[in-house]
Design goal:
Distance between the termini: 44 Å
Number of helices: 3
Radius of gyration: 16 Å
Helix content: 10-25%
Number of strands: 8
């Protein structure tokens, strides 16, 4: 596992390879008390190809945060809409006020920007995602 610290902020990123699952993971480490707090991250490789996104939406989840990427038509042409919301419910059962949405160019760089935006949401609203599984009785 390799570590990289950014800007003297005390925040470090590490990458590891899980031989059993056959996939790499990227983790963010932040100073926390007398140790480090570890966060899993969404990677570009977790999202299917642009060819897939041209045909249908892609959904996934990470640490209590669910996400959906989809192509939408707008005034500026086709855009990539990225929506995040707390578990446990799917996109259609979750109330709109629980969702956050951003749009990006419908191209490879847009997917990369969407992944970065989702990771920002994941870290900036960590308490929200940590308690997301407690929401089973919240919506009926």
């Amino acid at each position: 596992m390799g570590y990289t610290e950014y800007g003297g902020s005390g925040i470090a990123f590490a990458e590891s390879f899980d031989r059993q699952k056959g996939r790499r993971s990227l983790f963010k480490y932040q100073p926390h008390g007398n140790g480090w707090k570890v966060f899993d991250m969404i990677r570009r490789e977790d999202i299917l190809s642009m060819e897939f996104l041209k045909k249908t939406e892609f959904t996934g989840c990470c640490q209590g945060m669910r996400y959906r990427l989809e192509g939408v038509s707008g005034e500026e042409g086709k855009r990539l809409r990225c929506t995040v919301w707390p578990e446990p419910f799917n996109f259609f059962k979750t109330p709109e006020e629980e969702k956050e949405t951003a749009e990006f160019p419908f191209e490879e760089d847009g997917v990369t920007d969407a992944v970065a935006w989702m990771n920002d949401r994941l870290f900036e609203e960590k308490d929200k995602w940590d308690h997301a599984g407690e929401n089973w009785d919240r919506f009926r």
